[in-house]
C-alpha cells in the first residue's frame, strides 16, 4: 500500500466559499488545510478595493446562513454593503470560527496533480510548499483571475496604473489628477462616480455601453433589520426555493400580456425598489426579445431623461445586447456623473485604443494625456482561476486540454477524469446567476456530505462519469439555448471577453432551486453519475 495523503481535504481559497468549506469540513472532523494566495481572508473582497466597490445583492441575504448566532449578531450598516464592511464580516467569520489556524496564507497553488498510487492529489505552491491530500476542493471564485487587456505599452504607463481587481490597500487620492478609466462594466460603473468626485478630469473609455440599474443604496432601516432577524429562517428558506437564491417573489405575468400603462407602472415600481429585482417584473424578460425590448425602452427613456448632452446620452445607450443578458451593473449616480463638467465619455468601439505611450493613451483618432489610468477590464471568469493552475487528472491529462473546447463538468461539482476534485460554484453550476453565499453553502454542504459518505463507506475515490458529464453539459447548453443570453456578444458568461478563450456558457441557467433538488437526488441515489472507487485495500 502506498503512503497516505497528508490531509483528508485541501481547500483552495479564503473567500465566502473557502472559509465555509474549511469550517464545515473541520467541524466534521476532517483533517483540512486551506491554501490562500492573499495574506489574509476575504477572496474577491480582499482584492477589489476600488472606490465604490460594493455588492449588488442586498446585505441581509448576501451573507452566511449556516450559523444563526452569526446572522443575529452581525449588523449591516447599508442595504448594499461596501467592500470594507464585507471584508470585516469575513474577517469576523474567520475569528469567530477560528479558521485562520487551518490556513496557509501567501500560498498560490501552482500545480495540482492526481496521483493514482496515492489515491489523491499532490499540490505545489509557487513558493515551493508541497503537500498531498485525499480530496481537493477549489473555492477560488468565479471572478478572481484578473484580466489585463492586451494594449501595447499599457504596463509601461508612466503615470499611476491601477486595476480595479488588484487595488492598493492604502486609499488612492485622485484630487487634481487627470484620470482615465478603461471599461464600463460593473466595477467601472461603481468606481466612476466616486473617482469623478475627486479627479480634476475623468475620461471614460467605453467600448460597450451597459444597461445600468439603480441600487438606491441607503443605511439599513432598523425596523427592516429587526424584521429580517426575526424572520431569518423563512428568508433563507425562500432563497433556497428560488431561481436565483434570492428571497423575492417570482414574476407571474408576461410583459406582453399587460397594457402599456400597466407595464410602465410595473417597471417603475421595480425601478423604485432598486437592484436586480427589476427583472422580477415579468416572466419573459430573459426568453422573449419583444418582452425584453419593453424593459430596454424603459431604461433607455431614463438615460435620455438623465443625461443632458444628447450625444453622450446616445453613446450610453446599449445597442448590441438585450437588457440583463450581460451582468447589469448597479449604481446610483452613474448616468448623472456624465453631466459633470469634468467627465468625458470616449467611444473606443468606433476608434479603438491603439496604445499607451508614456503618459498618453492613444486611440485610433485622438490622444489623451493622463496622470492615472484605471483599468476596469474584469476577469477571466468562471474557469480562469482553475486553469491558472497546472491541474492534471488521471493519466496526467491536463484540465486545460480537457477543456480545450470549453468547460465540461457534472453539476459544476465534479469533472470526469479528475477524481476527488470538487469545484465550489464550478463551471456549469448556477454560480454567478445565484446569490453567491447561498450557492457556496449549498455546494459546500453537498461536498461535505459526499466526503462523509466516502469516509463512512470506505470510498477512496469519487469521480464523475463521462456519460453523466456529457449529459449535464448537453442539458446546460440546452437550457441556455432557450434564453436570450446568447444574444450578448462579448459576455464573460461565455468566456467571450478573453481573446482566444473557447466559448461555452459557463453557468447553469435552469434555476438554483431545481438545481439544488437535482444535487440532493444525485446524493440520495448513492451519488448517481459518479463512480465510487474502493481504496487500494478495498
Ligand atoms: P466586466 O463586466 O467584464 O467589464 C469589463 C469592461 O472592460 C467592459 O466594459 C469591457 O468592454 C471593457 N474592456 C475590456 N477590454 C477592453 C479593451 N481592450 N478596451 C476597452 N475596453 C475593454 O468586468 P467588471 O470587473 O466590471 O465586472 C465583473 C463582474 O464582477 C460583474 O459582472 C459583477 O458580477 C461583479 P466590452 O464590454 O468587453 O466591450
How would you sum up this structure in a few lines?
This protein has 538 residues and is α/β, with parallel strands linked by helices.
Question: Could you please describe the fold and organization of this structure?
Answer:
By secondary structure, this protein is of the alpha/beta class. The protein has two domains: 7-145 and 381-533, 3-Layer(bba) Sandwich (FAD/NAD(P)-binding domain); 148-211 and 326-378, FAD/NAD(P)-binding domain (3-Layer(bba) Sandwich). Helix content is 31%, strand content 17%. It is built from 16 helices and 18 strands. The strands form four sheets. Strands 1, 2, 3, 4, 5, 6, 15 and 16 form an eight-stranded mixed beta sheet that branches. A five-stranded parallel beta sheet has the order 7-14-8-9-10, with helices on one face. α1 (16-27) runs parallel beside α14 (436-457) and α14 runs parallel beside α16. The longest helix has 22 residues, at 436-457. It starts with 6 loop residues before the first strand and ends with a strand. The mean pLDDT is 97. Bound molecules: ligand NA7. Ligand NA7 binds at residues 143, 149, 151, 164, 182-188, 205, 207-208, 327, 348, 353, 376-379, 490, 492, 497.
What is Rg?
A: 23 Å
**What is the number of strand segments?**
18
Helix content: 25-40%
The dominant shape is: globular
CATH topology group of the largest domain: FAD/NAD(P)-binding domain
Class computed from helices, strands and strand pairing: alpha/beta
The overall average pLDDT, rounded, is 97
Number of domains: 2
Give the amount of beta strand, in percent. 15-25%
Amino acid at each position: 500500500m502506498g503512503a497516505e495523503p497528508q490531509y483528508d481535504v485541501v481547500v483552495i481559497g479564503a473567500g465566502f466559499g473557502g472559509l465555509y468549506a474549511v469550517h464545515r469540513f473541520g467541524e466534521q472532523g476532517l483533517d483540512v488545510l486551506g491554501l490562500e494566495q492573499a495574506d489574509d481572508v476575504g477572496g474577491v473582497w480582499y482584492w477589489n478595493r476600488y472606490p465604490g466597490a460594493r455588492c449588488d445583492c442586498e446585505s441581509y441575504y448576501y451573507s452566511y446562513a449556516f450559523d444563526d448566532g452569526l446572522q443575529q449578531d452581525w449588523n449591516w450598516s447599508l442595504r448594499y454593503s461596501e467592500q470594507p464592511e464585507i471584508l470585516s464580516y469575513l474577517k469576523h467569520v474567520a475569528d469567530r470560527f477560528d479558521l485562520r489556524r487551518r490556513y496557509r496564507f501567501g500560498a498560490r497553488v501552482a500545480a495540482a496533480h492526481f496521483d493514482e498510487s496515492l489515491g489523491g492529489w499532490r499540490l505545489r505552491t509557487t513558493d515551493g510548499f508541497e503537500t498531498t491530500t485525499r480530496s481537493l476542493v477549489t473555492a477560488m471564485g468565479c471572478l478572481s483571475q484578473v484580466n489585463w487587456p492586451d494594449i501595447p505599452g499599457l504596463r509601461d504607463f508612466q503615470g499611476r496604473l491601477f486595476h480595479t481587481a488588484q487595488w492598493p490597500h492604502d486609499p488612492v487620492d485622485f484630487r487634481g489628477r487627470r484620470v482615465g478609466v478603461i471599461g464600463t462594466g460593473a466595477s467601472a460603473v461603481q468606481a466612476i462616480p466616486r473617482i469623478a468626485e475627486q479627479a480634476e478630469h475623468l475620461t471614460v473609455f467605453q467600448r460597450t455601453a451597459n444597461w445600468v440599474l439603480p441600487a438606491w443604496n441607503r443605511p439599513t432601516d432598523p425596523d427592516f433589520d429587526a424584521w429580517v432577524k426575526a424572520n431569518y429562517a423563512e428568508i433563507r428558506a425562500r432563497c433556497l426555493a428560488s431561481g436565483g437564491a434570492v428571497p423575492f417573489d417570482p414574476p407571474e405575468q408576461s410583459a406582453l400580456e399587460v397594457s402599456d400603462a400597466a407595464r410602465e407602472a410595473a417597471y417603475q415600481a421595480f425601478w423604485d425598489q432598486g437592484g436586480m429585482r427589476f427583472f422580477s417584473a415579468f416572466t419573459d424578460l430573459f426568453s422573449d426579445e419583444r418582452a425584453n425590448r419593453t424593459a430596454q425602452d424603459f431604461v433607455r427613456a431614463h438615460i435620455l431623461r438623465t443625461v443632458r448632452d444628447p450625444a453622450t446620452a446616445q453613446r450610453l445607450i446599449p445597442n448590441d445586447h438585450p437588457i440583463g443578458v450581460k451582468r447589469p451593473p448597479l449604481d446610483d449616480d452613474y448616468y448623472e456623473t456624465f453631466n459633470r463638467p469634468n467627465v468625458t465619455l470616449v467611444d473606443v468601439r468606433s476608434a479603438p485604443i491603439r496604445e499607451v505611450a508614456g503618459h498618453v493613451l492613444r486611440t485610433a483618432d485622438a490622444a489623451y494625456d493622463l496622470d492615472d489610468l484605471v483599468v476596469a477590464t474584469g476577469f477571466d471568469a468562471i474557469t480562469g482561476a482553475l486553469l491558472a493552475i497546472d491541474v492534471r487528472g488521471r493519466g496526467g491529462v491536463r484540465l486545460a486540454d480537457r477543456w480545450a473546447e470549453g468547460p465540461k463538468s457534472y453539476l459544476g461539482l465534479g469533472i470526469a477524469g479528475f477524481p476527488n476534485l470538487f469545484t465550489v460554484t464550478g463551471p456549469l453550476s448556477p454560480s454567478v446567476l445565484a446569490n453567491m453565499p447561498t450557492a457556496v453553502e449549498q455546494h459546500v454542504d453537498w461536498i461535505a456530505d459526499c466526503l462523509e459518505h466516502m469516509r463512512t463507506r470506505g470510498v477512496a475515490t469519487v469521480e464523475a462519469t463521462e456519460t453523466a458529464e456529457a449529459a449535464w453539459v448537453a442539458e446546460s447548453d440546452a437550457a441556455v439555448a432557450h434564453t436570450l443570453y446568447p444574444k450578448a456578444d462579448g459576455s464573460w458568461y461565455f468566456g467571450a471577453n478573453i481573446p482566444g478563450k473557447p466559448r461555452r456558457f459557463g453557468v447553469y441557467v435552469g434555476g438554483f432551486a431545481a438545481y439544488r433538488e437535482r444535487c440532493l437526488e444525485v446524493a440520495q441515489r448513492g451519488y448517481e453519475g459518479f463512480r465510487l472507487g474502493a481504496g487500494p485495500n478495498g
